[in-house]
Amino acid sequence: MTTENFRLEKVRDFGLLFSDTFLFIKYNFKNLLKGMLYYVVPFGLLHGVILGLLQYETLLSMGNGSGISPNYSSSTVIYSTIASYFFMLISYTVAVAFVMQYIKLYRDKGADNFEVNEVGKAMLSNVPTIFGAILLSAIIAVVGFVLFIIPGIYVTICISLVVPIIVFEEESVGNAISGCFNLIKNNWWNTFAVLFVMGLISSALNFVFQLPSTIYQLTSTIFIVSGDAMTPSKSLLILFSMIQGIGYALIQVLPLTAIAMQYFNLIEKRQSPALLKDLETVGNNETSISK
Length: 291
What we know:
Elements: H1 14-27, H2 29-62, H3 74-109, H4 116-124, H5 127-147, H6 149-158, H7 162-169, H8 173-183, H9 188-225, H10 234-251, H11 253-271, H12 273-290
Helix pairs in contact: 1-11, 2-3, 2-4, 2-10, 3-4, 3-5, 3-7, 3-11, 5-6, 7-8, 9-10, 9-11
C-alpha cells in the first residue's frame, strides 16, 4: 500500500480507525514533522519557557518563608499561569489548523502533489476561526459539565468534530457546531472510544516528555520542604519545560489525525462520497468504452 492509494473517506471499524491513523502518519511522517517543527513547535517553545518560569516561581513560593525568595510576588505566579495556558492554547490551535489543513490538501490534491508551505499559507486564514471554535467549544463543554457531568461528557465528544467540519466542509462555526451533533448521531460511543484510547496514548507519550521536569520539581520540593536552602535552577526548569512544550506540540498529530479519520468514517457512513465517486468513475469508464 502506498500513499497514493490511501483513501480518507472510508467506513472504518474501531480497529481500522487506529491502524489507519498510524498508517497515515507513517506515510506522511516527513512532511508532517517538517510542518509541525516549522509552524507549531515555536509556539510550543514559548509555552515551555513560560511554563518553566511558572514552575520556578511556584517553587520559590514554597521557600518564601525560609528566605530563599525575598523578591517573590504572588502576582508573578498568576501572570505566568495565565500566559502558560494562553500559549498552550495557541500551540494547540496552530497544531489543529496545520494537521487538518494538511489532510484537506491531501484529500483534494493527492499525496505528493502539494508542498508543506502550501499548508502553511492555507492554514493562516483558518487559524482565527479555529481559535474561536475551540474557545466556544470549551465554553459549551464547561457549561455542560457545570449543569450535569454526563451531558458535559456527551457534548465534549460531539464538538470534537467541529474543527474537521469547519476545515473540510468550509462551514461557519455555528453551522459546524450544529452539524457535528447530526454527524455523530448513533456513533457517539464509537467516537468516545477512539478519543478515549487516543487520549490515553497521547497522555502516556506526554508523560515521557514531562518526566525530566517532574523529577526535577519533585527533587527541589523535597529539599525545600526539608528546610534545605537550595534555590531551584531557573535555566534547568525552563529547559525541561521547553522539552515538555515541544513534546506536547508534536504529540497532537496523533489524536488530531484520529479525529480526522473518524470524521471521514462518519461522512462515508452517512453520505457515501467515496462510493458515489467510484460509481461515477465506473460510469464514465463504461461510457468511454461504449464510444
